[in-house]
Design goal:
Blueprint lengths: L3 E5 L7 H8 L3 H16 L9 E5 L2 E8 L2 E9 L4 E10 L6 H17 L2 E3 L2 H5 L5
């Protein structure tokens, strides 16, 4: 089975993870995140710890470190190898902030209800275009 990655879309058509990536100032960090998402997809989400960690229900975080910053990308695997990329954040504390976990939970349930998505295309992200 081939795995494909998709951005979760809000009903407004906006992708939280795409907006997060667009807002990152360090372009090398964005490239590293894109590479990690591609690797996650190619390895069929079978990366070993500490690269992935279970967060809640079926939601996992893809964990990356670039220089002194730590980045987290929340995702879950839907039917037939669909990797749904929910959101991301730059880690500053030991625990996931409650507001971020609540937001990711809302995105998860919204996706299960509405299934709004758009395909993740690494070339488009790295070139700075919209999702």
């Amino acid at each position: 089975m081939t795995y494909k990655a998709y951005y979760y879309l809000k009903s407004s058509g906006r992708a939280p993870l795409a907006e997060y990536l667009k807002g990152l100032k360090e372009k090398q960090a964005v490239s590293d995140i894109i590479f990690a998402i591609v690797r996650l997809r190619e390895e069929k989400c079978q990366l070993p710890p500490p690269f992935i960690k279970h967060v809640w229900k079926k939601v996992y975080e893809l964990r990356l470190q670039h220089q002194r910053s730590q980045y987290r990308i929340f995702y879950f695997i839907y039917l037939q190898g669909k990797v749904i990329l929910l959101d991301g954040y730059t880690k500053k504390t030991n625990k996931i902030p409650r507001r971020i976990l609540k937001r990711v939970q809302c995105y998860y349930f919204d996706y299960l209800t509405n299934q709004y998505e758009t395909e993740f295309k690494e070339k488009e992200v790295s070139q700075g275009s919209e999702y």
